[in-house]
Structure formats: C-alpha cells, structure tokens
Amino acid sequence: MKIPVLHINQFQKLKPLDNFYVNSFSNHVELNSKLINKPHSHNFYLCIMFTEGSGVHEIDFNTYRINPGKVFFLKPTQTHFWKFDTKPEGFIFFHSQEFYELTFLDHALNSFPFYYSYQNPPLLELSQSELNKLNLKFKELYIEYMQNKPLKNIKIITLISSIYIELTRVYSTDISTEKFTSPHYSKILEKVENLINKHFYTEKSPNFYANQLNITTKHLNRVVKQTINKTTSQLISERIILESKRLIVHSRDNLASIANTLEFSDYAYFSKFFKSKTGFTPLDFKKKYFR
C-alpha cells in the first residue's frame, strides 16, 4: 500500500483557479475530510497558519504541537497528518511551483528558508502581534481568491510573496541566514536533494550524485557541509531511513520485502543499517510507533 499523494485538483475549491487553493482551515477540513483523514503527501507547496485549536502535527515522523500562532510549511513529497484535541481554525493555502515561479522568474521558492531544504524546520511560532499582522494578510488572500476582479492572479501571487517575506523575517530571527546568501550553493543543494529523492533506491554513493551534477565529490561535500552542516553520505542515509520508516508504518509489506524494495542485499543488512541510524531494529520501530 503506497502513501497517497494528493494533487491540487483533488481538493474542493470554492473558486476555480489553476494550481492554487486557499481556504479557512475549518472549511478546508469539512470539504476535504475524506482526503486528509489519513497520512498523505502532496505534489505542491503548502502553508498553514493556526489561529485556534490544539493537537499534534506529524511531518515525516517528527511530531510538533499545534497551537494558535503556529505556522507549518510543507514541500512536495513530505508525508504528514494531524490529530486535533480542540477544534482548529486558521488559514491554509497551497500552490504548484510553476504558479509562483512563472511570475517571479528571478525569485525561486527555495529563496525562502522554510522551502530551502528538507533539512530546515517546517514550522515557526508567531507572537500575538505577528499573528495579528499575518492573519490580516491571510484574510486578504482569501478574500481576493473569492472575488473575481481584474488581475486576480497577479494580486494573489503578490499577496503570497508578501506573506512569505513576512514569515521569512520571523523564521530568520531563529535560524542563521548566512547559508541562504549563496544562490549557487543553494541551487546545488536543491539539485542534490532532488537527485537523491529520485535515485536513492539504487544509488547510495556520493560519487554518483557528484557526477550527475558535474562536480567533484569533494566540492559536493563542501556545499552540503557549508549549507546544512552535514555530509552527502548523511543526506543519502537520512533519505533511505525516512523511506524505510514510511514503508514500515504505511505499507502492508513484510520487513524482508521492504528491505528488498530498498535494494538491500538481505534483511539482516537492512536491519543492521536501520538500527545503526535510529537505535531500533525495523521491528522494534514498528512496535514503538503503534504502541
């Protein structure tokens, strides 16, 4: 059983607009409960701001508390689901990469730190004054979406950009922005993460990814080290472990089949690798997750 990947056109839109969706969070849950009531991923970029409610939000096996002022960001392929203790409210919007970047040709989504890398935290917490300010911007975006005025697309993209800029300023107060100042390194990191996502099942050597990028392995390691303080081997291993966890928890395959899917020579080697990275055997991890 594969984790469902949701597409923008699956969601019940109040107003049709290609590659973009915005709604109040309560309406979104009511309209799309059948789509989002189980773990899933997306093929788009997503931003959620909570103004009310409490609960937990699990993103790629990391659990975060939900409370007023929390903002979450998700990139394509990330798996998530939420469980609420009290009724949530706020706003949610999502869009394709093309929707944003075809307008801002010189300003890619990875310019924003929360979309820069899968390694960066997918959330921030707003102060009350920041929440009040951003809430007005989200409302303006929602109202514009509901209306049918001239230059609607341009206005919406401008509002999205304004929201992202404000969120970046808050986000960057807690995270050093030094690593975001090199567009060249940023582009290499984005490319290697995308390559790893595409090839990690079969290619587990840093040398392969360096060759794909037409750079040396040493330079690739330098880029990864300077941007996210890790090695290329760590990036590859972390992606394998993430997929292992997804398959262990969300698929119906037995553990030996999962090892085979991930192209390990046998289950014993897979189990040893998994334990060395997580501290648990695959079976122990599965028992712990469902405990």
TrEMBL record:
The record's annotation in PROSITE patterns points to: HTH_ARAC_FAMILY_2
Assigned keywords, A-Z: DNA-binding, Transcription, Transcription regulation
Highest taxon above the source species: Bacteria
Q: Which InterPro entries match?
A: AraC-bd (IPR003313), Homeodomain-like_sf (IPR009057), HTH-like (IPR037923), HTH_AraC (IPR018060), RmlC-like_jellyroll (IPR014710)
Question: One GO molecular function term?
Answer: DNA-binding transcription factor activity
The HTH araC/xylS-type domain covers which part of the protein? 190-288
Q: Which Pfam families match?
A: AraC_binding, HTH_18
PANTHER family per record: ARAC-FAMILY TRANSCRIPTIONAL REGULATOR, TRANSCRIPTIONAL REGULATORY PROTEIN
Can you name this protein?
Helix-turn-helix domain-containing protein
Species for this entry = Pontimicrobium aquaticum
